[in-house]
Specification:
CATH topology of the largest domain: Translation Initiation Factor IF3
Helix content: 25-40%
CATH superfamily of the largest domain: Translation initiation factor 3 (IF-3), C-terminal domain
Strand content: 25-35%
Number of domains: 2
Shape: rod-shaped
Structural class: alpha+beta
Oligomer: single chain
Largest sheet: 5 strands, mixed
Distance between the termini: 54 Å
Mean pLDDT: 87
Number of strands: 9
Order of helices and strands: EEHEEHEHEHEEE
């Protein structure tokens, strides 16, 4: 296990003993960095270690910046929300979905209003049906404690 595969710019790639690989790195005035540890033999690169770390950090930052951030907007209803309020909140949800945010719609039950669970579920299903052309439902309404909630994700733009 004292053999390593050495690669790098201006270096003859090949399999060398660890001592020989270290000598090659010293002659070049650079460091010997293990790249792939679980290969047989392990792969090492002759490179400036500080520059290597900088490049790694830069790649990670680039990957992170390209990752899409998910924004979740919440819309709260009561079990007896009337039509005007429903339409007002529906219009807000449409704007959120068109801007690419997910919408978490929930019905909050206060006190004894928990007996109107069916009304809350009907309200959320109606809400989902009205938003059908803007987003897709990620799951049926679920009751968690005093909240019945469901998520709606925006539809992909063509």
């Amino acid at each position: 296990m004292n053999q390593v595969r050495v690669v790098g710019e201006g270096i003859e790639p090949g399999v060398y003993s660890i001592q020989k690989a270290l000598e090659i790195a010293q002659e070049a005035g650079l460091d010997l960095v293990e790249i792939v540890a679980n290969a047989d033999p392990p792969v090492c690169r002759v490179v400036d270690y500080k520059k290597f770390l900088y490049e790694q950090k830069k790649k990670q930052k680039e990957i992170k910046s390209k990752a899409q951030k998910v924004i979740v907007k919440e819309i709260r209803f009561g079990p007896q929300t009337d039509d005007h309020d429903f339409n007002f909140k529906k219009n807000h949800a449409i704007k959120f979905l068109e801007s690419g945010a997910k919408v978490k719609a929930y019905v909050f039950f206060r006190g004894r209003s928990i007996v109107f669970k069916e009304q809350g579920e009907i309200l959320l299903l109606r809400f989902a049906q009205e938003l059908e052309e803007y987003g897709k439902v990620e799951g049926l309404p679920q009751l968690e404690g005093k909240k019945m909630q469901m998520m709606i994700a925006p539809k992909k733009k063509k």
